[in-house]
Amino acid sequence: MPLRRLALLLAAWLGLGASPLLAAPLAEGPAQARLAELVSGTPETVARALAQLGASGDRRFIAPLVELLRADEVGAVQGIDRSQLVSTLASLAGTDLGDDWPEWVRFVTRENPGKPPGFTGWKGRLLARIDPRFGPLLASGIPSRIRTEEIIWGGVAFEGIPALDRPATLPASEAHELSDTDAVFGLVVNGDARAYPLRILDWHELVNDVVGEVPVSLAYCTLCGSGIAYDGRGPGGRSFDFGSSGFLMRSNKLMVDRQTLSLWNQFTGRPVVGPLVEEDDFRLRVLPSVVTTWGEWRRRHPDTRVLSFDTGHRRPYHAGAAYGDYFASERTMFPIARRNRALPDKTRVFALEREGQPKAYPIEALVAARVTNDRVGATDVVLVANAAPVRVAGRSVRSGRERQYRAGAAVRAYRRGAHRFSSGEAGQPVDERGRPWRVTEAALEGPDGAHLERLPGVLAYWFAWAAFHPQTELAGSPTPRREP
Question: Among 105, 333, 401, 435, which residue's CB has the most CB atoms within a 10 Å radius?
């Protein structure tokens, strides 16, 4: 047994904190009383509550104490002796992580010590001290299908990152502010082609638009390197549009719909906290999209419209301005509880999920192969990546430094059926009989009118994909290796 843990257990036996071996959870009434006292603002009351919790050994209070550690850092609470808070955490956890908030977040996520009754509503009231609009998102008794102790504040207000709603667009011929090398998200819905420059989306992260007469929400998690286009129509004919809640989970943004104020997982298109959780389980339909260059997208879709720089907001919409430092760095910004060491954290991957089986492919390998035949779940697929990775060069407004990074690559996935493809001239897919097929946004088009359906995939950083898909397969590495 490590000496530090032995010392903590000895202190518990001497009355400085209850032994975890003998601890019993507090009853509901006393538990809720201690929660209230922790945010009373009276130093004496807070100190007494911390002492009582340390003596109780109730590990469920690790989660609220970690919340207080962050709240104290940002000035959302007063009257807390930080050294007593940290020592109480160490006593309850049986390990000492100091006042390192990210390490405590990782501990709570990995160890799952539980949470006391009333925790979610208490957390909502605590976060409402930062922004009153946070309170209703985590109200008492609100239904949830995730552990609300894993939700963390991302450092911005509710919709502090403003979404673009029905933004102005331009025909390609009038997009004079764009260069051919600019990175864009591209999608086509019912024949209507649309491009969204990443140097605009870096500042907004969400676009609620109508493309091909379909309500579309393009949800972009800059921290995850992931942009996903969703059909905004839900069951019963309802439509949803989204904003940034200001909350994260495992470094992934939690979206909020404006219709019900439910929180949604950006990766899954599924409501996870709020009124919609009690309804029939559903997830929004993912629309196939691609990250490519403006020059390549315009060549393929000369009739495309593109997001206008006249957004109604004043932002420096040049490449790298908002997140250039982050994109160019190997580091992450928020705690990662479990790392999958099969790849470096911020390796770009293209991921598919079929029949409940997720699989990820390093972008560099796909680009090198150009055409990849594989099987995901029960579906035979072919992935086409016949263009070089999208490279970005720009200047960060935060550091003032020039930054260079890759924004991903144009990868399109299709059902393969009984065919097997190889790379032909300029990376064009060629089937087993040597016949060329044409790459389109809707399907892989072959001879005699043959069509192979396009499949939606996700471009993301490896750490982000693996955090929500711990059992994912990784192309070329059949056994996932996760950090213990």
Answer: 105
What whole-number distance in Å separates Cα of residue 298 and Cα of residue 212?
18
Inter-residue contact 436 to 445 (CB < 8 Å): no
Q: Which of 18, 105, 30, 7 is nearest to 59 (CA)?
A: 18
Work out the pLDDT band at 23, boundaries 50, 70, 90.
low
CB-based contacts of 105: which residues, under 8 Å, 6+ apart?
Answer: 66, 152, 335, 337
Element (H, E) at 153: strand 151-153
The runs of H, that is alpha helices, within 94-228 are 101-111, 119-127, 198-201
Average pLDDT on 456-482 reads 85
Q: Where are the domains of the chain?
A: 3-138, 164-307, 324-474
Q: pLDDT tens digit string along 256-281?
A: 999 999 999 999 999 999 999 988 77
**Residue 73: both structure tokens together:** 């850092």
pLDDT at 6 over 80: no
Taken in order 48, 54, 60, 63, the sign of the CA dihedral is positive
Give the largest CA-CA distance in the chain: 83
Question: 12 exposed, middle or buried (CB, 10 Å; 0-12, 13-18, 19+)?
Answer: buried
Nearest CA to 400 out of 298, 324, 309, 466 is that of: 324
Strands (E) across 176-278 are located at 183-189, 192-197, 206-211, 214-221, 226-231, 242-249, 252-257, 263-265, 270-273
Contact status, residue 260 vs residue 276, Cβ threshold 8 Å? yes
Q: In this structure, are residues 310 and 426 in contact, taking their beta carbons and an 8 Å threshold? A: no
